Amino acid sequence: MSKHILFIFRNMGTGGAQKIEAFVANTLINNGYKVTVLNMAKERCSVAIDKEIPVYNLFFDNVENEKNSIKRAAKKIAYLIQLRKAIKKIKPDLICVFLSDIVRLTVLAMWGTKIPIIGSERGDPYQFSPKKLKQYNWAYNKCDGVAFQLKKAEKAYSLKRNIKKVIIENPCIPREESFPERTGNEHIILTAGRLAKQKRFDVLIDAFSIVYKTHPEYKMFIYGDGPLKDELKQQIRKRKLEQSVVLVGNVKDVFREATSAEFFVLSSDFEGIPNVLMEAMAIGFPCISTDCSPGGAEMLLQGGKRGIIVPREDSIKMAETMIRYIEHPELQKKYSQRAKEIIEEYSPERIQEKWLDFFKDFI
Predict the structure, then answer these.
(1) How far is CA 352 from CA 71, 78, 170, 309, in A?
(2) Element (H or E) spanning 164, and its range?
(3) Is 192 exposed, middle or buried, given 0-12, 13-18 or 19+ CB atoms closer than 10 A?
């Protein structure tokens, strides 16, 4: 009988962690394992999950949205009891959980059971408060195995020697069946991500306002949506860039919508391994990225060999680098060719093998 693996998703939306968790679940079902998914949020499903994988819902939204601390604590305890019952009913041989807060919830819910748990850190642990980091460190120490994206992320934790640890990078996979062909024939600078503080689109808009002074023929398209949309609109108006900076919103596949852009910029303060940068490189966009913690972008760009790295929160340096790309087409061409090297280096087949080898240690 094939072993049964349960994946617990925080939500099944468009986030990078969800995309990779679905990739791992699909890998396992395609290699003879029985796979089930438990989804914790009402957000519309947009991950590519295999149709043979059953999905059960046990929504956590009601707990997260509770503002009263006492009521929230009571609802959380009730949810943990429900989660424990749901998992016992599913009867998995192994539980796989992405994201530190969901790992902790799962460990608390399954306290005292003997079902092995694999946790996976997908972000930047250096952004956690000391209290949160201590809580997550405790949770990962209750797991049987932990998968990290980056060695530096692993170093943020103090895990026991008996816990199996592994570094598995993200796969380079298109959003649809194949990567689109980039034309790069329009004066457009491209970026994408959730309109949230972490992504630092405010810094990028300030940088573009400097670029615009010498190259007014250029436009910048920002794909994505989020809580800072109105704030960014105000910033664009203040800089008098309404005709040049476009907040496009969410689309199914950014890179099919924007194949004519010249180059891509990532302005984040922190990321895991940024999937959006990986996709941009695979299509052949010359890229600029901040040295976002804990080093995923720098790894992809090979310290500057596959694209240009600039300091975080430095709009002047970012503007200077964008102007270098604009005024030196041969530089764009060089980095466009080198960027595509990641297709082979992080091919789905290679990353699948790493995950399969990791799971064999537990089932």
Answers:
(1) 42, 37, 10, 29
(2) strand 164-167
(3) buried
- Nearest-angstrom CA–CA distance, 349 and 326: 36
> What number of other Cβ atoms are within 10 A of residue 152's Cβ?
17
pLDDT number for residue 177: 75
Q: Name the residue with tokens 């298109």.
A: 174
Q: What is the DSSP string of 17-77?
A: HHHHHHHHHHHHHTTT-EEEEEE---SPP-S---TTS-EEE---HHHHT--SHHHHHHHHH
Q: Which two tokens stand for residue 191?
A: 């970026």
What average pLDDT score do residues 156-173 get? 95
Q: Residue 272 and residue 121: Cα distance in Å, rounded?
A: 9
Taking the C-alpha atoms of residue 76 and residue 69, their distance in angstroms, rounded to an integer, is 10
Residue 36 contacts residue 54 (beta carbons within 8 Å): yes
Segment 191-234, tens digit of pLDDT: 999 999 999 999 999 999 999 999 999 999 999 999 999 999 99
Query: Mean of the per-residue pLDDT values for the chain?
Result: 95
At 134, list the tokens.
Answer: 């201590």
Burial of 108 (0-12, 13-18, 19+ CB in 10 A): middle
Q: Report the C-alpha gap between 43 and 53 in whole angstroms.
A: 18
Report, as an integer, the average pLDDT of 329-354.
96
Lowest mean pLDDT among 45-49, 162-166, 271-275: 45-49
Q: Are 92 and 114 spatial neighbours (Cβ–Cβ below 8 Å)? A: no
Residues 6+ apart with CB under 8 A from 146: 118, 119, 120, 121, 140, 154, 157, 159, 163, 164, 165, 166
